[in-house]
Amino acid sequence: MMREWATVVAWQDGIATLHSEAKTSCNSCSARKGCGSHALNKLGPKNAHVMTIPSAEPLQPGQRIELGIRESSLLGSALLVYMTPLFGLFAVAGLFQMLFHSDLAAACGALLGGVGGFIIAKGVSSRYAGREAFQPVILSVALPPDALRVEDVS
């Protein structure tokens, strides 16, 4: 099970709104200037994710909770997102090359197949998004920020 900590932003009627920071290793790596991942991280959002998750237990803003998601569902999602466009790219490029015997046609087919693969991946992922195996679950709940636990060890 993959684990990640998140902070509660709000809780209302059994639904918790959570804020999670995405961690990257870009700050500790010395190859930042020539790294494609570092460049992509600078282009994207600022590594913050907001999500909603059902929680029967009342939560307070600022409280930390540990979320978990199955590795199999995470790997299946990654396989769908990366391999479907790649397969579409090669399949349609090969088909266009075979039909039209032109590199330009193959390049157009590759573009068409890649975009088509992204559209198919988006459609398939929206069907699986509601399944329980693809939803994060609450593993543990930390104390609220204003609570103090005192244990008598005598």
TrEMBL record:
Signal peptide: none annotated. The chain crosses the membrane at residues 74-98, 104-121. Keywords: Membrane, Transmembrane, Transmembrane helix. The keyword Heme does not apply. It comes from the Bacteria. The keyword Mitochondrion does not apply. Pfam families: RseC_MucC (PF04246). NCBIfam families: PRK10862.1. This is SoxR-reducing system protein RseC. It comes from Pantoea eucrina.
